[in-house]
Design a protein that fits this description.
Bound molecules: calcium ion
Number of helices: 15
CATH superfamily of the largest domain: Alkaline Phosphatase, subunit A
Shape: globular
Largest sheet: 10 strands, mixed
Radius of gyration: 24 Å
Structural class: alpha/beta
Oligomer: single chain
Distance between the termini: 81 Å
Strand order of the largest sheet: 7-6-5-4-8-1-9-10-2-11
Length: 520
């Protein structure tokens, strides 16, 4: 009894801070633009395109997610969904053509800010309206440019000499150094790289020493076994990728005279050798693929180096132990699979995105999660982590138990996907469907025409469905929809699509503005 009284009195004498809950973690959310999981070496699969040691560090010291999906694989819509935790038909940002983000709606940065976090977004925003919910914001106008970019600092345009990935990181570090240290922080460091036109840092131009890259098996895909949408898209390396700015036969306009010299010293002799060869057909496509890989991966080299700088800052300042570091991309990207670049499709290269999470003491080091998760789950995760209630409107689910290594028994097994923008740049038909750990079911539908300029939509053929068994067909090359052997799976997944459409409050007909501007 005496001991108990003693312990009780000792408890009363403890300083208040020691009795309080542990400090809420900081959040550093690094997001790249169009960074394919195939180009993160931690994923250890595929063609061994590049080493990303700094990004990999998050996998070695934290958790790698192998099944992270986005709900609408396009820059603006993906970002709107990440901020709001909602699908496009709820947040209103369907496409990159005619949508403006409604900054009055609920976002996780706003809720964290109101709950005492100091918040900032630095880098690519691409949502057409000014950021809301941030103590500090410094964003590229629209897509922004790679060399000597302008950033808009709380409304004021400032040009920064140098390379965009370095600059976004410099500005992120500057903000971290002068932030209000009485509060936990939430920083969105959202890189522009490696988005088209794939312009690497000048110091990295020779990073691969003229390596020849392994070709994807489906570079010369003929789309047999699939439908009209695959046949009539406009996103092939062979036909859509342009030789000038895409393949660097022309010099980017933004370089200073000194920078231009470095650029030309690398590209000019290689371009001359290419032009002398007069390549055509498959040889030309292979050359374009290799130039694309050089430029795209060169951009990723700088992203990785700059992730290293941010991690070093967290180490040096002792912040690492109480900071959740997230590395992800707004969506995936085709690196020649099916002959394509770009994204948009429900297929794995596009709808799946890298997600690596390090939270010391929570995410087991070197762990791998294969559940069906989504970047849509991140807002709820951040809110639960901060001890905040989850708004009813949000449509993901907190990953907090998953971070701890214990996925709830009733975790989702199928994720709903819906892409709208059409005909737009790449002529990918609107489609929706579900993705499970084994199957992808999709419906390419005939959208209702709402506006005269969207007449092209009226001329597309009737709707059709596709089903891919990725266990037997990892590359999603042959639809088995209608195959009697898959009848039961097909019925179950179609029921799942319609169940999710109701649950997610999808309207029977799309919003008139969902498809965006006509072809540009
Ligand atoms: Ca993107």
């Amino acid at each position: 009894m005496k001991q108990l009284i003693h312990a009780f009195l000792a408890g009363l004498l403890l300083p208040v801070a020691a009795l309080a809950a542990p400090a809420r973690p900081n959040i550093l959310f690094i997001m790249a633009d169009d960074h394919a999981w195939q180009a993160v070496s931690a994923y250890g699969e595929g063609r061994h395109l590049i080493q990303t040691p700094n990004i990999d560090r998050l996998a070695h010291e934290g958790m790698r997610f192998d099944g992270c999906l986005v709900n609408n694989s396009l820059c603006g819509p993906a970002r709107a969904s990440i901020l709001t935790g909602t699908y496009s038909h709820i947040n209103g940002f369907y496409n990159n053509g005619n949508c403006r983000f409604d900054g009055a709606q609920t976002t996780f940065p706003k809720l964290l800010q109101a709950a005492g976090y100091t918040t900032a977004v630095i880098g690519k925003w691409h949502l057409e309206t000014d950021p809301t919910g941030f103590d500090h914001w410094e964003i590229l106008p629209g897509q922004g440019i790679y060399y000597n970019p302008v950033l808009i600092r709380q409304g004021q345009r400032v040009r920064h000499p140098g390379y965009v990935t370095d600059i976004i990181t410099d500005l992120s570090l500057d903000w971290l150094k002068q932030r209000d240290t009485n509060k936990p922080f939430m920083l969105l460091c959202w890189q522009k790289a490696p988005h088209r036109p794939w312009e690497p840092a000048l110091r990295d131009l020779d990073f691969d020493h003229d390596r020849t890259y392994p070709l994807p098996d489906s570079l010369f895909d003929d789309y047999a076994g699939r439908g009209e949408a695959e046949h009539n898209q406009n996103m092939t390396i062979a036909n859509t990728m342009r030789l000038n700015e895409d393949s660097k036969l022309t010099v980017p306009p933004d370089l200073s005279p000194e920078q231009k010299k470095i650029w030309e010293a690398y590209y000019d002799p290689r371009n001359e050798a290419f032009l002398k060869k007069n390549l055509t057909g498959r040889a030309l496509t292979e050359w374009k693929y290799n130039r694309f890989m050089h430029d795209y991966l060169g951009c990723i080299k700088s992203v990785d180096d700059n992730v290293g700088r941010l991690l070093k800052y967290l180490d040096d300042t002792g912040l690492a132990s109480n900071t959740i570091v997230i590395y992800s991309s707004d969506q995936g990207f085709f690196l020649g699979e099916h002959g394509w670049f770009d994204k948009r499709w429900i297929f794995q290269e596009s709808a799946r995105t890298p997600l690596l999470v390090r939270w010391p003491g929570v995410t087991p080091a070197g762990s791998v999660n294969k559940d069906v998760v989504s970047s849509l789950d991140l807002p709820e995760t951040f809110l639960e982590t901060a001890g905040l209630p989850i708004p009813e409107r949000m449509q993901g689910r907190s990953l907090l138990p998953v971070f701890h290594g214990t996925t709830p028994a009733d975790w989702r097994t199928a994720f709903y996907y819906h892409y709208y923008e059409y005909p737009a740049d790449h002529h990918v038909r609107p489609h929706y469907g579900v993705i499970t750990s084994r199957y992808t079911l999709s419906h390419f539908y005939k959208p209702t025409v709402f506006e005269p300029e969207q007449k092209a939509i009226a001329n597309i053929p009737d709707d059709y469905w596709e089903l891919f068994d990725r266990e037997k067909d990892a590359g999603e090359m042959r639809s088995v929809f209608g195959d009697p052997a898959y009848a039961a799976v097909q019925t179950k997944l179609m029921q799942e699509v319609f169940r999710q459409r109701v649950n997610l409050k999808e309207p029977a007909q799309d919003d008139p503005k969902a498809y965006g501007s006509p072809a540009r």
